[in-house]
Amino acid sequence: MTSPSSDRPGVVAPPPLIYFAGIVVGWALSFLWPLHLTAHRAWIAGASLAALSGGLALWAVYTMHAAGTHIDPNQPAVRLVRQGPFRWTRNPIYVSLTGFTAGIALLADNAWILGLLVPVLLIMQVGVIRREERYLEKKFGDEYRRFLKEVRRWL
Questions:
Q1: Residue 12 confidence (pLDDT) above 90
Q2: pTM
Q3: Fewer CB near the terminus (10 Å): N or C of the chain?
């Protein structure tokens, strides 16, 4: 049995903050050294991607609330969610944050934001996802190991 203070994955930072930091740093770098994406009508793709990603995030959040578990990784997981978007990806909120960030980069015509998605995703993988996976495997055991085999991490 784990104590209440150890019943959490210990992620390095809240995932939305990690993505937001990438956007802010990319925006700041664009003032020092502008790098544009030059794609014609990239704003249409950006707006579409941001909107679809927002919809996916809302669906995932609703599904977690309906299942009665916490979204905040600083809170204990109450149950393993396998419904809704979690049938296709183990991390629909992270997929949506990635898509939303790429959409913002396209909307802003900012190559820095898009390029900084690489280190953001590395931080997410090492500092968030791996920690969450270890935690969930320890907490839910065989049920989580089946989930790992049946559902992809991203898409």
A1: yes
A2: 0.92
A3: N
